[in-house]
Write a structure and sequence with these properties.
The two termini are 27 Å apart. The protein is α+β, with helices and mostly antiparallel strands. Helix 3 crosses helix 6 and helix 5 packs across helix 6. The strands form 3 sheets. A 4-stranded antiparallel β-sheet has the order 1-6-7-5. It contains 6 helices and 10 strands; from the N terminus they run αβαβββββββααααββ. The structure holds zinc ion. Zinc ion (ZN) binds next to loops.
Length: 267
């Protein structure tokens, strides 16, 4: 599933080709995404200009010149890319822009979402702090952990608390911070919270530098694979040796998802 670094990479790679461009045509081939694409979707977009491309957590926000916003969530397997000549049966929505660029939304599992929202509609009001924003401070994270007894990993993945982190990056962040995924958030000491905060910024920045993680479907806005999947230290490495200490990495279910950690490096 695309997480913050994948969505940010798509934003960075798409921006130079879509910002300032007018939508000349929208073709909706498949309306049955997680929420049905509305009948008026294409009409609302055609003739509008993209003034900016922003990101909030795992959402992409295309600002339109009429004040509305095209909101995109990639779900489990969505990709938004400028396509070459190829077409695919999972290309569900296709945009043709005034500079001739074709942007295609491809989503084999169709858990994504694409809709037009009004400014101030409150669609994203329950989204937590974006970990790349200046609001994400050690103090903010300490406040989130206070009196929350749930595992720190599920707290990091709760989009209403920290927006953008999922299973991959929560696993990698906690390894680098030396904290086990199942630790109750309320038991964390100040220095551990500071380590998790620092590791969050470090891991996300590094993953963006590598163009995100391509495990199955993910491609960036130019259709290229990411490179961070080759740098995972624990994620999907259960049974392998820890690169830091040699201990066997464990895989354990936690909150319905697999959790990966080194029992020696993480306390
Ligand atoms: Zn280790």
């Amino acid at each position: 599933m695309p997480e913050l670094p994948e969505v940010e990479t798509i934003r960075l790679t798409l921006m130079p080709r879509v910002a300032g461009q007018t939508v000349e045509e929208v073709v909706v081939r498949e309306t049955r995404l997680r929420q049905k694409v509305k009948a008026e979707f294409g009409v609302q977009l055609t003739g509008r200009r993209f003034t900016a491309l922003r990101r909030a957590g795992k959402y992409l926000l295309f600002d339109l010149d009429d004040g509305r916003i095209l909101l995109v969530h990639l779900g489990m397997s969505g990709c938004l890319a400028t396509s070459a000549d190829r077409t695919d049966r999972h290309d569900h929505v296709v945009f043709r822009l005034s500079n001739g660029v074709i942007v295609t939304y491809n989503d084999p599992r169709r858990f994504g979402c694409m809709k037009i929202i009004e400014p101030g509609e409150g669609e994203l009001s329950d989204l937590g702090v974006d970990p790349l924003s200046s609001d994400f401070t050690p103090e903010h994270l300490r406040e989130l952990c206070r009196r929350r007894r749930r595992p720190i990993k599920t707290l990091l993945m709760d989009q209403a608390l920290v927006a953008g982190v999922g299973n991959i990056y929560a696993s990698e962040i906690l390894f680098r911070a030396g904290v086990r995924p199942a630790r109750g958030a309320h038991t964390l000491r100040g220095r551990e919270i500071a380590a998790i905060h620092a590791a969050t910024e470090e891991v996300l920045a590094e993953a963006i530098r590598w163009g995100g993680s391509s495990i199955s479907d993910y491609r960036d806005g130019n259709g290229n694979r990411g490179g961070f999947q080759d740098r995972f230290r624990v994620y999907q490495r259960g049974g392998e040796s820890c690169g830091r200490c040699g201990t066997t990495i464990r895989a354990r279910p936690l909150g319905g998802r697999s959790s990966f950690y080194c029992p020696a490096c993480q306390k």
